[in-house]
Amino acid sequence: MKFLMELLFPSSIYCISCKSIIDNSRVYSLCDKCMELFRWTTGRTCDKCGKILQDNYLHDVCVDCRESDHHFEKGYSCVQYGINERELLFSFKYGGKAFIGEKIADVMADKLATVDFDADLVIPVPMHKSKERKRGYNQADIIAKHLAKKLTLPYSKKLLLRVENTAAMSGLSAFERHMNMENAFSMTENAVKIAKGKRILLVDDIYTTGSTVSACSKVLISNGACEVRVVTFAAGANLLKFDKEDGNQNC
């Protein structure tokens, strides 16, 4: 069925970002212009979460990671979240274009091929069942399923459950995001048995302050997982903060 649908409605004739006409030779189904506009994480990145770091930034971890104790071992991201990256993700999440998830998984697989990485199991950040019913799918689940196949790793959708229908994170401060995720996730007794001793790769579409993936990681680690690593398509910018004491930016 997937093969027939691809013949009838090819997913590679339009750029998945700007909708320009392309051919199937374009990597990730992105046109040349969008490939240039996307801010790929090919330079300096945070040693903890994978955000892009500014050239004049003096630390090896971003501002958020310096201020927060995340429960995951390490994070990887593919692009910095901006206008062009936002358009792509909004089409994927809210435009009904679930096929974009496989293209994003291609990007993630190539990113992970460039780093020191190993895992036993791939899982998505779970979505509350009421939100998933409303949207029709969990975008992190679609990406994770394709990524697991590309990495030839086992995949599980139900290892981690979202038990709280949390408020939207946009507009919340870092502390509010953290509190919003308190007690949002849980695991069944059978899931705990599966996770015990495993190195888990946790998949999501966007990374901002890390509150969501850190809350997921905390539950996984406290229930016996030996390590959690995180991969996301886009990560927010490293936002420098003004230091009132010495009058300089936190760089």
Give the beta-strand count. 8
Rg calculated over all Cα atoms: 18 Å
CATH-defined topology of the largest domain? Rossmann fold
Query: What is the beta-strand fraction?
Result: 5-15%
By CATH reckoning, the class of the largest domain would read: Alpha Beta
Name of the CATH architecture of the largest domain: 3-Layer(aba) Sandwich
| Class based on secondary structure composition and strand pairing | alpha/beta
Describe the structure.
The protein has two domains: 1-37, no CATH class; 38-249, Rossmann fold. The mean pLDDT is 88. The chain is 35% helix and 15% strand. It is of the alpha/beta class and 251 residues long.
Key features of this structure:
251 residues; alpha/beta; Rossmann fold; 2 domains; 4-stranded parallel beta sheet; 10 helices
Overview in brief:
With 251 residues, the chain is α/β, with parallel strands linked by helices. Helix content is 35%, strand content 15%. It has helices at 2-8, 32-37, 63-67, 83-94, 100-112, 129-135, 139-151, 174-180, 189-195, 211-222; strands at 74-80, 121-124, 161-162, 185-186, 199-207, 227-235, 242-243, 248-249.
Break the fold down into its secondary structure elements and pairings.
Blueprint: H1 2-8, H2 32-37, H3 63-67, E1 74-80, H4 83-94, H5 100-112, E2 121-124, H6 129-135, H7 139-151, E3 161-162, H8 174-180, E4 185-186, H9 189-195, E5 199-207, H10 211-222, E6 227-235, E7 242-243, E8 248-249
Parallel strand pairs: 1-6, 2-5, 5-6
Antiparallel strand pairs: 3-4, 7-8
Helix pairs in contact: 5-7
